[in-house]
Specification:
- The structure is a single chain.
- This protein is an alpha+beta fold.
- The protein has two domains: 18-120, Arc Repressor Mutant, subunit A (Orthogonal Bundle), CATH 1.10.10; 143-223, Winged helix-like DNA-binding domain superfamily/Winged helix DNA-binding domain (Arc Repressor Mutant, subunit A, Orthogonal Bundle).
- Helix content is 42%, strand content 21%.
- The chain contains eleven helices and nine strands.
- It has helices at residues 26-29, 36-45, 51-57, 68-73, 75-82, 86-96, 131-140, 143-155, 165-171, 181-194, 218-223; strands at residues 19-23, 47-48, 62-67, 103-107, 113-120, 126-130, 161-162, 198-205, 208-215.
- The strands form three sheets. A four-stranded antiparallel β-sheet has the order 2-3-5-4. Strands 7-9-8 form a three-stranded antiparallel β-sheet. Strands 1-6 form a two-stranded antiparallel sheet.
- Helix 2 (36-45) packs across helix 8 (143-155), helix 8 (143-155) crosses helix 10 (181-194) and helix 9 packs across helix 10 (181-194).
- The radius of gyration is 18 Å and the shape is globular.
- The model is unreliable at 52-60 (pLDDT under 50).
């Protein structure tokens, strides 16, 4: 098949139950220069670190890797998933290799470019996201929306949690009460609810609204009936 033939996500993900790690490190989630839509795409197309490498190095660092030419092979699929031109995606990736994103660009002896994506180093945390959910996030949301989902995924791993809009904004590197930031976080949580990924409950205490969040499991997400639980 030629480089621009029609591929589907099933050509990339062979296992329907495949799950991917995404870093929830504050230094990356809180960095406005880290594009999580592109990082999610890279993760979806990446390969995992071999067990042999882990055993040989003895390092606790964990990573995935992606050959640049794989993105070009699946250009149409990549651009359809992201609604972005591949050249723009490559530019974003190259920019992220220049800052602390955990992405490293290596050129092999054969001249191929490989991107290495660290998702666990030292005490840095990560969350596990089902491939189909990751695909949905890439297609129907943006970088900040994915960041908020990852934060909520981590924070709500043991159940429902009360979280303020101001706190969420600060976690993704934005200041509360500046411009349309407050509306942006409300729109993001609404989008995540509409996608069936989270639940948001608002209660009034002494005249003030308090937001509680929980994360839907993969099975709950599959069964989600699109009833809007968001205010």
């Amino acid at each position: 098949m030629g480089l621009n033939n029609t591929y589907t996500i099933n050509d990339i993900i062979k296992d329907d139950n495949h799950r991917f790690p995404m870093t929830s490190s504050n230094i990356r989630v809180g960095n406005k220069k880290v594009n999580y839509k592109v990082l999610a795409l890279m993760t979806l197309f990446s390969n995992k670190q071999t067990l042999e490498n882990i055993y040989e190095t003895g390092s606790e660092d964990l990573y995935r890797y992606l050959y640049k030419n794989k993105l070009f092979k699946y250009r149409n699929l990549v651009e359809n998933l992201t609604n972005m031109k591949l050249e723009t995606i490559i530019k974003v990736i190259n920019n992220m290799t220049k800052i602390d994103t955990g992405i490293r660009k290596i050129t092999t002896e054969g001249g191929e470019i490989v991107y290495y994506m660290d998702y666990k180093t030292n005490d840095r945390e990560f969350v596990i996201i089902h491939a189909k959910i990751l695909k949905q996030l890439i297609t129907y949301s943006n970088s900040n929306c994915i960041k908020v989902y990852i934060i909520l995924n981590y924070m709500c791993r043991k159940g429902k949690v009360k979280i303020t809009n101001s706190w969420l904004l600060k976690q993704i590197g934005l200041k509360p009460n500046i411009g349309n930031n407050n509306k942006q976080i409300a729109d993001i949580t609404k989008t995540l609810c509409d996608l069936g990924l989270i639940n948001k409950y608002t209660e009034d205490i002494d005249g003030k609204s308090h937001n509680w969040y929980s994360i839907n499991s993969y099975e709950e997400w599959k069964l989600f009936n699109k009833l809007d639980s968001c205010s």
